[in-house]
Amino acid sequence: IKNPQLTVEIDREKAAVYGVTADQIRNQLFNAYGARQVGTIYMPSNDYQIILEVQPKFRVDPTDLSKLYVKTSNNQTIPLDAVAKMVPTVGPLQINHQGQQPAVTISFNLRPGTSLGYAVDQITKIEQDSNLPATIATGFSGTAQVFQDSLRGQGVLILAAVFAAFVILGILYESFIHPITIISGLPSAGIGAILTLMLFKMELSVIAMIGIVMLVGIVKKNAIMMVDFAIERRSAGLSAEHAIREAALMRFRPIMMTTFAAIFGTLPIALGAGAGAELRQPLGVSVVGGLLVSQLLTLYITPVIYIYLDRIDRRLKRRLDPTLQETPDVEPPRAAAAE
């Protein structure tokens, strides 16, 4: 099955000699075989468009193209075959369109062990290295398009979740310093989730991103427990160092209990048991990995950040209120054994 077509190949040298441009030839062909509107007839009841085209008898044989004439630079007319030649070729049986433009679809399948994100990046790199002309527009469709659309707003979503947590904590503690201390443990959770996904060779899919967003709400409870207890001890007159140290010691057991409760709650999802578990497994892996890493780091990071930010807070308060004096630190009470 063939679809014969006639290709008009312009001889650039001959056209330059006669002063004929490619646009002139293109316009002449469109005038003859296109649907160029040259005017409108206005009637009392309706309007009629005037379409320019050749007579039907000149549209039967391919040799009729030689009967078309174009004007040269000195206003002389020459036949079309004087500056171009007609080459019979075979055209496509079907021309697909997308957005009213001709489109060509190239399909691909994933090799076992290759993630969709890696394949999309490699195809994009090949496209950039090919130096395609500006008239060619490319894009993904199907699953690859859904994947790109899903990742397009994930960064904004995570930033919005962190900002919302900061605002709520700022309202709760009536301070801009303590929310920063609490949120400081979130990067360790994100790093832990990404490292765990890389360890198990899982891609950063939409489900995994949901797990990272969940970590924003889960991980900060460790710092909330310590900071809340430290604020109470500071009101009793203890220094920042002694208050946060006592908070870390006293809140260690509740922190471990709540963390392991969250880990064991998401562990079945991470193990991937049941139908459709491969879809939910990245969520469980990212949550478990983020909790484990953040649990190890926040117990050390949060007290240090609390002490340094507390010093900054006191300096700002003394600068805003010069009459404010530094209160002496009170040593925590120590138990003495009686003989």
Automatic annotation (TrEMBL):
InterPro entries (UniProt xref): AcrB_DN_DC_subdom, Acrflvin-R
Domain of life according to the entry: Bacteria
GO cellular component: plasma membrane
Name of the protein: MMPL family transporter
GO MF terms held by the record: xenobiotic transmembrane transporter activity
Signal sequence residues: none
Annotated keywords: Membrane, Transmembrane, Transmembrane helix
Transmembrane segments: 155-173, 206-231, 252-271, 283-309
UniProt-listed Pfam families: ACR_tran
Keyword Ligase among UniProt keywords: no
